[in-house]
TrEMBL record:
Keyword Isomerase assigned: yes
Similarity annotation: Belongs to the 4-oxalocrotonate tautomerase family.
InterPro entries noted in UniProt: 4-OT-like_dom, Tautomerase/MIF_sf
Keyword Aminoacyl-tRNA synthetase: no
The protein, known as: 4-oxalocrotonate tautomerase family protein
Region of interest: Disordered: 50-83
Cited Pfam families: Tautomerase (PF01361)
Lineage top rank: taxon: Bacteria
Residue intervals passing through the bilayer: none
Record keywords: Isomerase
Length: 83
């Protein structure tokens, strides 16, 4: 029974959650070789003031790191090894 948990910022509507659950369920069922009914998806909405990245809370003004920044050395080596 695969279980996946998604944490994302609060504010996504019900339809987006439904679409996410449907897509994740289909993908997990296909990869795990199990029926859709065996897949559980938990979607947790997180307030921006409960989400930190780069040493800052997401609701604070400031320069938070972008996804285009280079990962730390250890992360680069792990990513390279897994390819």
């Amino acid at each position: 029974m695969p279980v996946v948990t998604v944490d994302w910022w609060k504010g996504n509507d019900r339809q987006k959650r439904a679409d996410l659950v449907d897509e994740l369920t289909s993908t997990l069922a296909r990869i795990a070789g199990c029926p859709r009914e065996a897949v559980t998806v938990l979607v947790r909405d997180v307030e921006q003031d409960h989400w930190g990245r780069g040493g800052l809370l997401a609701d604070e003004p400031g320069e938070a790191p972008t996804d285009s920044e280079e990962p730390p050395q250890r992360a680069r080596s792990v990513l390279t090894e897994s390819r």
